Amino acid sequence: MNSENNSKKATASEIKQLVTQIFKNNNISLPANHSGLFETFLQEEQNQALIQAIIQNQNLLMRNWQLDERIAEILQQPVRVVNGTVGKPYEAAFDLEKFNWTDITFFELQGLETVGLTYDPENKKIAGVPTQSGDIPLTFQFKVAGQPEEAPLNKKLLTLIINPDPRSLWKNLESDPNDPYGKADNVTVLAPLNDRHILVSSKRGRSHANMGSFREDDFAFSDLANGWSIVVVADGAGSAKLSRKGSALACNGIVEYFKDPASVESMTAFDELLLQHTNNPTDATQKELTRFVYNNLGKAAFQVHKQLEAFAATVGAPLKDLSATLIFALFKKYDTGYALLSFGVGDCPMAVINKDASEVTLLNWIDVGEFGGGTRFITMPEVFQSDKFATRFGFKLIPDFSYLILMSDGIYDPKFVVEANLPNITKWQEFLGDLNGQNEAGIQVELNPKNPEIEAQFSGWMDFWSPGNHDDRTLAIVF
């Protein structure tokens, strides 16, 4: 609107046209012989005053209409305020210029304070950390240019959607403590192991906690009488009714096998084989070592398979009801370094990281397939009949290491995503950085056995949020 143009004095031609139209609207005709009379009529002082009053009122009426029309336009204009999430820092632009509201002379935004937000007029942003979820009503009160000072504020209703924290939607229902195959929902342990320490945590996934079902993962570890130490991780199949028992039987069965006096005695032969290979490495000594690993670890894996088979028969359940993946690693310190023996079936990786964390060595390959359909379980007879069975065993001799790590897919999937990332030391360095506090929650695990908070820190870290990844999580770190 331009007040200067609205206040311009009407010309004689405009006055004549105006009055003629008024006459016409009132069915008054102007014969040609009355043209002189009409001119005289327009010039009379009292009529001049009335005409000017009509013009002023008409202009005022138009101004009022334009004002109302502009206010209505603002009230009807769709305005979307960016959604927020409870507990997450929120920032959203609220700039009048971007809305083409430059003619607004005053405004205030009410309702933000109810959810912990404020409007910063300098930066033209709404900011803060939302404290509650829901469709939050906001009132935008304003005046536009041309409105009288005493006029009431115009009110435009807006809606700010604050989504709930996804974590708050998950229930944490206790599993049945009276179930004959029940186990603790969450376990975190620090213990000495060989000349190192082991920190291991196994946590029930949110998907299981939401239904009050059981943790399907399991683990075991132990020092052996012959200087070896063993770490075992198993991941029970979520679709298998007794997989929680299957994973426990598998882990404990492996440890029991290697603790058996016959196995302890059998493992002593490795010392002589390794000495021969170290002093004079040949294809023959390498084959002997490979055969030793295959025979001893293969027997352990097959014995566990038979134990699961026997248990299934005892309880009258199909063997597949006990389905579980299984990985384990043995390590022993020699004068020349550390020997590591490994076996794996399923999609749980094992790796050892060298002393300065500049190189990673994978101890197994993982069973993955299109759409995740390639997972194998220790309960499957075909695992032992496959031509690939011999490739499931590993032997590594390394000077030293900083970390020996075994994990279930509840850790692998969110932290490494795809198999191709596992040989990449950069990904493992990022993983170690994550443990050290470089994560969204800022939770740090100080990997020091003298740290009195290490178990609590590790347990807290294991609860990290990863959209779409709510499976059981087990992570064992020898350091």
TrEMBL record:
Domain PPM-type phosphatase: 171-478
Short name of one Pfam family: PP2C_2
Coiled-coil region(s): none
Gene3D superfamilies listed in its UniProt record: Immunoglobulins, PPM-type phosphatase domain
Protein's name in the database: PPM-type phosphatase domain-containing protein
The organism of origin for this protein: Adhaeribacter pallidiroseus
